[in-house]
Amino acid sequence: MADNTVTDVKKLSFERAIEELESIVKRLEDGKVPLEESVAIYERGEALKRRCEELLRQAEARVEKITTDAGGRATGTVPLDVQ
What we know:
Elements: H1 3-10, H2 14-30, H3 35-62, E1 64-68, E2 74-79
Antiparallel strand pairs: 1-2
Helix pairs in contact: 1-3, 2-3
């Protein structure tokens, strides 16, 4: 895979990357793509998957849980434990 292709993937938004990844999966599942092209788009799909995972990790790091007191009033925030 060319370096400029990887760079392009690194610039994609989550929505654009997931949309392209879904398109690649559909094309591969249809089984009508020549072998050489299948390998190339599979490699791009892997790069897109990594980009989506990276963006999700970044989003999770920014999400915070609002803490409240006994009266239900917001008292602050703490990192959200997503595990």
